[in-house]
# Entry
Amino acid sequence: MTAIKARDRDALIQSLRAGVVPRVGQHLIQVGRVREIEALIKDVDRIGEGGSAFRVVAGDYGAGKSFFLNLACSIGREKKLVTASADLTPDRRLHATGGQARSLYAELMKNLATRTKPEGGALSAIVEKFIAQALQDAQTGGKSPESVIQEKLGSLSELVGGYDFASVIAAYWKGHETGNEQLKADAVRWLRGEFTTKTDAKNALGVRTIVEDASVYDQIKLMARFVRLAGYAGLLICLDELVNLYKMSNTQARRANYEQILRILNDTLQGSAEGLGFVLGGTPEFLTDRVRGLFSYEALQSRLAENTFAKDGLVDYNHPVLKLANLSPEDFYVLLTKLRNVFGYGDASKYLLPDTALPVFMEHCAQRIGDAYFRTPRNTVTAFVNLLSVLEQNPDASWQTLIGQIQVSMDRGAETDRVVEAEPVAVAQPVVGADEFANFSL
Amino acid sequence: MFLTDLFSRHAKSCWVPPGEASEAAGFVLPRGMIYVGTELRAVANKSAEPSLINPRLPVDSVQPSKTFRWSSDVTGYAAIGAKVKALYLQWLSEGRKSAETSTGCLMLFLFGVERRVLHDWAQPQMHDVVGAELPAIIAELERLVARYGEPHPVFKAQTLKLLAYLAAMRDPHAKGVDDWRGYLHPVEPGSSERAHRDVRVALGRAALSGGPLPPDLAYCGYLHLPAIPKRDAHRVCGDLHRQLFEAEYARQYGAGLELEGRFEKMSALYQPVSPTFGEVEFEALLEVPDVMRDAGFVRKLEQLGHYCDNQLSDYVRLLNTQPEKQGTLEALAALPLQSWPIGRRFRFERLVAQMKAEDRPQTLPYAKLLAWLPRYTGRPLDKLGVLARVLSKWGLAVEPSAPSEAHAQDPVALYRVQDGNARPLAGEYERAELACRLLVFIVRAEGAFAGTEFDVLSGALGHWPTLTLAQKDRLRARLCLWLAQAEGVLEGTTQALAALSAKDKARIGEFLFAVAEHVGIEGSALSRILAQMSTRKTKKARGATVPVMLREEQPGSGFPIPAAPEPVRPKVSLDLARIAQLQVESEEVSSMLGAIFSEEPTIVAPLVVAPITGVSATPSLLGLDQRHAAFARRLIAQASWSRTELEVLAVAEGLMLEGALERINEAAYDHYDDPLFEGADPVELNLSVAKELA
# Structure
């Protein structure tokens, strides 16, 4: 057993109490899933070596998809990748014509994170690190900073939109050099995809293009190459709640989004993307539904269909799809032991609850909400963390009494996952049989 | 006396008071607030005062520079070039009102103001004079921030700090602070430094007043506490979140939290940018307690905030994915009762109170029930489920459970559902419902219970002991509907009876007979129905003085009377072998991830660390280049820095702040697996890493 850093512990507890997936310290409460994590680490290593990766993480509500995606980001950051994560919503899609794809890109750029800025907002730091490195190189090589920056950004120009991207980075440098904060702010706005008209961008930065719905994926590829130029290992993109694509009622729009996923899949698996990885999180319906899901798109179905040999307990962890099963009571029990360990700073002598208390807690929750206590454990975990918190602050309190008072409510988030956008559906009319009328007589 | 006069005259000769004009190199400088003269020494050393405009120095007014770039190289007016001097004087001569200017001009002007308010004001012999000038100086600084702040954030940030410091110095009790109620609307934490400060001051003043903390201020404090992680609720549905927070706050703390105990005082720190002071920092202590530093207070607000976040989580999740659902039935189903619109809540409260008082279900047209609720916009097939969820929030259910919109004027019955742990027996409800229909018919035919029919029938349900509480509630609602129905109660009973087994028929007959015995029904309707049930029990059994057999013994058949209800205790059965396997797997995962996240070993024995040569020498702190190393050394000197201070320092070192922090923290990670600086504003020193570096 290893000691736990107070910083990780506190951040983890705060997140769990608030009912959100923690951004740090996930490794402290990870239960099982060795092979899945091994596969993930391999992916991250591959991205760090200039390769690419693509995974769809499929699991029911409460199976831990978001947790797994955050863990992927944490591992990526520790391995010196830059990570960006975002949830898809009706306003944030991979493909759109009304600004929703640009909105997704803007969200990703807002959440850009590095090892030293895990909470996001690292875009400026990345740009400035690149420029600082260029300045240092210019100083040691006796060259002008402009020429070094141009030289370094030269490799971007070969990608779609690369020339303007390089111009914007150069504008940032100019803004710094001349003390023009506005120019710097405009450059960052452009990189974040916040310019909505080309005229504004031309006036502010002298570039002819902006990040548009159609160019989002190309822009992500440019960013992946740029972060490598800035000294990071690569870029990992984590997209969650892909079930929102499945919910879209417009078939054309849904297919266009799936086409975009196919493009990403092809690029990453064929190796044409460099230092770039994608992890997508969605429900099994999103993946396998042949009417609305990814499998409704033939080309994706053939690429993502299950390995025919992977049955009867055999699993292929190299497959692009990683399936996460729901937690079992045993998984949940081990999770509780891990939470107890986190509260005790990894020191068994500081545990706030004995082993016997854990099944009692589980039983109490089972009585309240049935199987949901381990299948969708968000509220149960929060309740357990609150219990430990009270015990920590009140060492004289009796856990037996406290467990009886715990209120656990059902997590109904899964219902939202199943709701699809409204479509005209014929209302079923009750059929009235002729024999419904009574002939009972006295 | 002589020295004072001399000092006063000397200072006066250089400082141009607000509103007075001066002249330098042919430029008329109209609005004062600058030092103009030939001799004035810096505060901390014997060099010339950096802000002093010496008219004897050469100025190239023919070709003034286009920009005056601000950096650490700018050590004062004397040190800048003749063209740049011309640019600065030109800006001053335009009354500091030109549309655009350079950061350098603004910062050089700030040098002079800093000297006046930080140094001259502190001199006893000048205190009153400078004090009288302060309102004009502050007004000028605020004007400059408003005019030039956006394109020159370094100047803006530094000036705002100076203004905050001056505010604290002039008004240590913070009585003149703006009304904090202006900030009660949800504000992104950290989005406004001034709002943040005002809320802190307001909290401190509430503590001083000794009274309870009002709920709106408590909520404002919660929003502005950076230590509390916040979910989306305050952003997605700010008003609802606030109302819920304030209601829960009032429930838990009545009139409000009593802020008692000892709190640290608030302070305003200011590090001047002018080189005239050297390395000096000014601190103004306010006579106001800093409640936000109290861990107990923070914890209480945090718990309230989390409670509200949890209550609104379903609603937020819905709006995050489908914002157009606001105001619909689906949204109402996701809201906690406290957050319902008052009109709708009141209507249901009144209904529930009435049902409790009368202890019977209420019937009303389905259309009327729908009119009480907002529109539904989802899939038609899901509507009844959503309606059931809405009603269940009030502990209510509707009968029939699936009313038809096509017959919206037909009555439905709303009834209160009681909790019960008993498991229903299969088919029991349907049998009981059939029996109750027949009973309704019999009671009506008897005609002796006008006005009390419901009570009689409702009481009859006690004769069917195997029904669960929920089933009895539903049947009571069904009885209400039948009683409201003029005819047709027996529709479909012939077919239903024909489908029953003889045993079930007999059982229904026994039920009817028992009820009839109890309430005294003797009519022919009962006899004829009992005959249909093939039951052999007749009125002859009445008045028996010895136990009589109600049913022939049939081993293994019939419905045993269930044991007294006891709480259902689902046993959690755990597979110990699986747990052991999981623990092994988890250990494997922990070691795999531990290697990546580099946890600290538990061994606390002192590690023998080879001395790092050259750490104390300047060049290679954390393996950084000289500039970054010097910047890091400068930062280690203080535990906490505001972003403004760091921006000024970074510019002085010729670095870009974000990039510099990134590089330093990366280097610290590589060496100590921890960053050296944490947080965005303020940026705080990681003391454990700093200790290692020391």
Notes: DSSP finds 26 helices and 14 strands in chain B. The two ends of chain B are 50 Å apart (CA to CA). The first strand of chain B starts at residue 15 and ends at 16.
